[in-house]
Each structure stands twice: as structure tokens, then as C-alpha cells.
């Protein structure tokens, strides 16, 4: 940010002589930034003339479906802008629901591959024995049940981008096969000896700490190096400040439009405070689902209550100080247990714990495993 200040003994003299200087300086800066960014600056008449604040534009690029303008988000978008036009493998890291898939899609859209396919492979949703067929395809009769030829996703994405979501969940035996493809850039369909060459860009994402996974023998170091060429870490929602309320409003408006509601309700001051202070363990997905539920339940013009999970919302706000002594793992465990209790232990489906927490059931299951939470129907009842 560049600020220019002009001082003058009296108002008239300022207005007449410095105005000229100001305009000239402004023009020079304006031309400079225009050259740098190819984007015109906002020269709205509302900007006070005496202190001219010229904000260098962070980006003149449009990001598809990305709402928010907090500094942590803008920093991520700057990185996305830099890497998108290259062919480099991107590893997107961040908690569940922070928008990793959205960012991956934007990398694709900003690349020269944008008119070619963008194909997502959810590594957590696939059993180990199916992954090879999913990735590479198979010939008819290659194994029992292979009744016809199937084109794998890597082949279908030729020319475009493959997004390997939840890569940290990929079974070890599948990691070897993926690594081989990443090194050689070609493969054979199962049951065929014909080599298929493809030109694809790989983007991978995970909510796991892959270095820790490598250390504990669950993720191959060589595959980690292959994927970790350009890491981009998404901030959790609780660290995105003003974006929480911007996103909340966005989701209320989006849901209202989808439901054909004419009145878009406003948040009460209390709700604004609750939304800002809540920790959002399920990040944007949790906020999105909460806003959908809230709008459905709101008939008037004011949203004066939101049903945040009891572990935090039921307490007075000052009690959050007591929680500061707990580790994130303890808070996460307690929060998941309290949601599971509310759902009678049900993880999947509408109103299940995964939906409430704003994450896919597979992610919740692996989180529970990691935190040592057993599946039962009577949590604390
Ligand atoms: N910046 C954003 N603006 C608006 N909506 C967003 C933004 N980021 C994410 N979302 C929405 O939040 C939800 C979760 O996003 P996404 O699936 O990309 O997260 P994720 O990090 O890939 O989650 P997971 O790790 O569970 O796969 C989606 O509905 C997505 O549309």
C-alpha cells in the first residue's frame, strides 16, 4: 500500500496548487499500476482527495465460486494464480471443508487445460482392490466381473487435470501403482499389455499431515516427494476473520434464492457474535449446512438464533477461556463425541454426525479412528 500526503498552510492554496500536483502524481501511479496489473484502479469520487490510498491490486483474476477476501485467503489465491499457468503438481493441504476441491478446480480453470476434463478421484471412497481399475481401467475379462472394457479416469482425463482428493487415505499398495504412473507418465489397462501415454496435470489434496503419515509408515516418502512439488495450505475458517460473516451471508442468500424466498433475513447482533466466535471444526462446509438449516427454520426478517453444537454454543462465551487449556485433539474429541451423542452414534446420512460436522463420512470415520473414538450407539447416554 502506498500513501501520499500533501500539506498546505491554508485550504485555498491546497485546493488550487496541490490539487494539480496530486492529480499528476495520481496519474503517474495510476499508469504504473495499470502497467503492472493491466487493471484500472478504482478512482471513485468518494475517495478523499487529500490522502490518496492506492491499493496495488492483488489479482485481476476471477476465481470461480470463491467467496471471501480475508488476508489468509488472498495469500492462497496469490499462490494459486502463480502456479496455475504452470504444469506443476500441486498439493493442497488443509482441514476438511476448507475448500480444497474448490481451489483445485480453480487451478484447472486458470490453466491452459481449462477446456479439457477436470476429473476427481476420491481416494478415500475407493477400496484398494478397485483403485487400479478406477485409475487405469481394464479390458473385458481381465478379472471376475470385468464384463466389458472400462476406460480409467487417468485416460478419460487426457489433456486435462486429475484431482486426487483425500490422497492421505490411499492404501499403501495403491500408492506404489500411482507412484509408478507419476514417474513414467504411462500405464497399461488391467488385462492389456498396450502402453497408454497420457498428458495430465495432477493436483492432490489431503487433510492429513502427510509428513507425519510418512513418519508412521502409512504414506510412502517417494510418493510424498512426487506430490509435494508446490504445496498450498488453506487456512481453517476460524482464522479467516471477516470471511466467516461474508460466507454466512452468502450461504443465506444462496439458500434463499434456491428456495425462492423473497425476503433475505438479516443476522441479529447476538448471532453475528456467535458465528464469529465459534471454532468451525467442519469449516466452510459446516457453515454452509448450518446456514441452510437456519434459513429453512427462519420465517421472519431476523435470524436471532443458530443451532451451534452444544459443546460450544450452550456455554456462555466467557467460558471459552477455560477451554484454552485443552489441546485441539481434546476439543475435537469432545466435540465429535457430543455430536455423535446427539445422533445416537449415526455417522452417515441426513442428520448424521458427518453431515452436522460438515465432512464426508469417510473423513469422520478416519478422524474417529485417529482420535480413538469407537463406533457405538450410546455415546455418554
Ligand atoms: N471460498 C469459498 N467460497 C464459497 N464456498 C466455498 C468456498 N470454499 C469452499 N466452499 C464450499 O464449502 C464446501 C466444502 O468445500 P470443498 O469440498 O472444496 O472442501 P474440502 O476442503 O475439499 O473438503 P474435504 O477435505 O472434506 O474433501 C463446498 O460446498 C464448497 O462449495
From TrEMBL:
<dbReference type="Pfam" id="PF00158">
    <property type="entry name" value="Sigma54_activat"/>
</dbReference>
<dbReference type="InterPro" id="IPR058031">
    <property type="entry name" value="AAA_lid_NorR"/>
</dbReference>
<dbReference type="Pfam" id="PF25601">
    <property type="entry name" value="AAA_lid_14"/>
</dbReference>
<keyword id="KW-0804">Transcription</keyword>
<dbReference type="InterPro" id="IPR003593">
    <property type="entry name" value="AAA+_ATPase"/>
</dbReference>
<keyword id="KW-0238">DNA-binding</keyword>
<keyword id="KW-0805">Transcription regulation</keyword>
<feature type="domain" description="Sigma-54 factor interaction">
    <location>
        <begin position="66"/>
        <end position="296"/>
    </location>
</feature>
<dbReference type="GO" id="GO:0006355">
    <property type="term" value="P:regulation of DNA-templated transcription"/>
</dbReference>
<dbReference type="InterPro" id="IPR025662">
    <property type="entry name" value="Sigma_54_int_dom_ATP-bd_1"/>
</dbReference>
<dbReference type="GO" id="GO:0005524">
    <property type="term" value="F:ATP binding"/>
</dbReference>
<dbReference type="InterPro" id="IPR002197">
    <property type="entry name" value="HTH_Fis"/>
</dbReference>
<protein>
    <submittedName>
        <fullName>Sigma 54-interacting transcriptional regulator</fullName>
    </submittedName>
</protein>
<dbReference type="InterPro" id="IPR027417">
    <property type="entry name" value="P-loop_NTPase"/>
</dbReference>
<keyword id="KW-0067">ATP-binding</keyword>
<keyword id="KW-0547">Nucleotide-binding</keyword>
<dbReference type="Pfam" id="PF02954">
    <property type="entry name" value="HTH_8"/>
</dbReference>
<dbReference type="InterPro" id="IPR002078">
    <property type="entry name" value="Sigma_54_int"/>
</dbReference>
<dbReference type="InterPro" id="IPR025943">
    <property type="entry name" value="Sigma_54_int_dom_ATP-bd_2"/>
</dbReference>
<dbReference type="InterPro" id="IPR009057">
    <property type="entry name" value="Homeodomain-like_sf"/>
</dbReference>
<dbReference type="InterPro" id="IPR025944">
    <property type="entry name" value="Sigma_54_int_dom_CS"/>
</dbReference>
<dbReference type="GO" id="GO:0043565">
    <property type="term" value="F:sequence-specific DNA binding"/>
</dbReference>
Amino acid at each position: 500500500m502506498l500513501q501520499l500526503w500533501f500539506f498546505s498552510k491554508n485550504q485555498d492554496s491546497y485546493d488550487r496548487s496541490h490539487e494539480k500536483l496530486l492529480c499528476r502524481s495520481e496519474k503517474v501511479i495510476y499508469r504504473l499500476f495499470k502497467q503492472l496489473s493491466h487493471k484500472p484502479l478504482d478512482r471513485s469520487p468518494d475517495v478523499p482527495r487529500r490522502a490518496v490510498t492506492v491499493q496495488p491490486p492483488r489479482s485481476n483474476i476471477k476465481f470461480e465460486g470463491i467467496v471471501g477476501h480475508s488476508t489468509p485467503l488472498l495469500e492462497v489465491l496469490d499462490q494459486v494464480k502463480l502456479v496455475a499457468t504452470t504444469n506443476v503438481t500441486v498439493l493442497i493441504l488443509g482441514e476438511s471443508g476448507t475448500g480444497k476441491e474448490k481451489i483445485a478446480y480453480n487451478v484447472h480453470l486458470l490453466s491452459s487445460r481449462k477446456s479439457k476434463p477436470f476429473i476427481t478421484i476420491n481416494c478415500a471412497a475407493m477400496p484398494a482392490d478397485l483403485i487400479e481399475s478406477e485409475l487405469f481401467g481394464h479390458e473385458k475379462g481381465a478379472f471376475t466381473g470385468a464384463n466389458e472394457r472400462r476406460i480409467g479416469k487417468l485416460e478419460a482425463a487426457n489433456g486435462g487435470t486429475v484431482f486426487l482428493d483425500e490422497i492421505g487415505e490411499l492404501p499403501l499398495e495403491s500408492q506404489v501403482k500411482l507412484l509408478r504412473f507419476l514417474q513414467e507418465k504411462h500405464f497399461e489397462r488391467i488385462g492389456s499389455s498396450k502402453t497408454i501415454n497420457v498428458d495430465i496435470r495432477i493436483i492432490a489434496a489431503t487433510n492429513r499431515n502427510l509428513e507425519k503419515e510418512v513418519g508412521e509408515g502409512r504414506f510412502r516418502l517417494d510418493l510424498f516427494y512426487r506430490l509435494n512439488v508446490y504445496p498450498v495450505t488453506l487456512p481453517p475458517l476460524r482464522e479467516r476473520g471477516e470471511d466467516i460473516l461474508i460466507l454466512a451471508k452468502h450461504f443465506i442468500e444462496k439458500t434463499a434464492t434456491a428456495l425462492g424466498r423473497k425476503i433475505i433475513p438479516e443476522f441479529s447482533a447476538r448471532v453475528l457474535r456467535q458465528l464469529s466466535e465459534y471454532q468451525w471444526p467442519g469449516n466452510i462446509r459446516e457453515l454452509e449446512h448450518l446456514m441452510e438449516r437456519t434459513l429453512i427454520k427462519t420465517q421472519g426478517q431476523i435470524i436471532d438464533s443458530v443451532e451451534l453444537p452444544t459443546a460450544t454454543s450452550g456455554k456462555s462465551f466467557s467460558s471459552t477461556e477455560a477451554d484454552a487449556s485443552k489441546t485441539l485433539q481434546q476439543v475435537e474429541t469432545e466435540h465429535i463425541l457430543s455430536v455423535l451423542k446427539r445422533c445416537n452414534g449415526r455417522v452417515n446420512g441426513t442428520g448424521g454426525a458427518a453431515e452436522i460436522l460438515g465432512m464426508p463420512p469417510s473423513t469422520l470415520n478416519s478422524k474417529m479412528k485417529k482420535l480413538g473414538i469407537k463406533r457405538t450407539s450410546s455415546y455418554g447416554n
